[in-house]
Structure formats: structure tokens, C-alpha cells
């Protein structure tokens, strides 16, 4: 099979989709419920759930995780008190 320049855009698209996919599992909490709260520090449009999670863990001591929602807000998940 010979590589041609015609296949380059397809290969680039597949690599971009693989790198940009951010599949994450829901937080596992053994005791208590999970509460969700909009981050007060994350003020720009949320494009990366990883950056959101780091911000949430710095903002709330009880934060489990953080993720971007459809409206591009950073939503922090934490154990309900």
C-alpha cells in the first residue's frame, strides 16, 4: 500500500479526533451523593475538561472532578455535605 497525498487530510482528521476526544467516566463515590456546582474561578469558555478538573480541585477541597457542560461552563463535582 502506497501512501499518497490524497490520504493526508483523512489521516489528519482521524488523528485530530483521536487526540481531541475527552472520554471520562463519572466520579465514583462510595458514601454520600455527588453535588454539582459551577466554578467561580473558571471564567472563560470551558473547552477542556482536564483544565476544568484542575481548577475545581484547586477551588474546592472536596472536589472530585470537573467537566465542561454543553453551555461551555466548568462544572465541579463534589461530595454533598
UniProtKB/TrEMBL annotation:
Residues 1-25 form the signal peptide. InterPro entries: Knottins, Scorpion_toxin-like_sf. Residues 33-80 form the Knottins-like domain. This is Knottins-like domain-containing protein. Pfam families: Gamma-thionin. Keywords: Signal. It comes from Platanthera guangdongensis. The keyword Signal applies. The keyword Zinc-finger does not apply.
Amino acid at each position: 500500500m502506497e501512501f499518497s497525498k490524497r490520504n493526508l487530510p483523512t489521516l489528519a482528521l482521524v488523528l485530530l479526533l483521536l487526540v481531541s476526544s475527552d472520554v471520562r467516566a463519572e466520579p465514583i463515590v462510595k458514601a454520600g451523593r455527588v453535588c454539582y456546582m459551577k466554578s467561580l474561578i473558571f471564567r472563560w469558555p470551558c473547552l477542556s475538561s482536564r483544565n476544568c478538573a484542575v481548577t475545581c480541585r484547586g477551588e474546592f477541597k472536596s472536589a472530585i472532578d470537573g467537566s465542561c457542560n454543553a453551555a461551555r461552563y466548568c462544572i465541579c463535582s463534589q461530595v454533598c455535605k
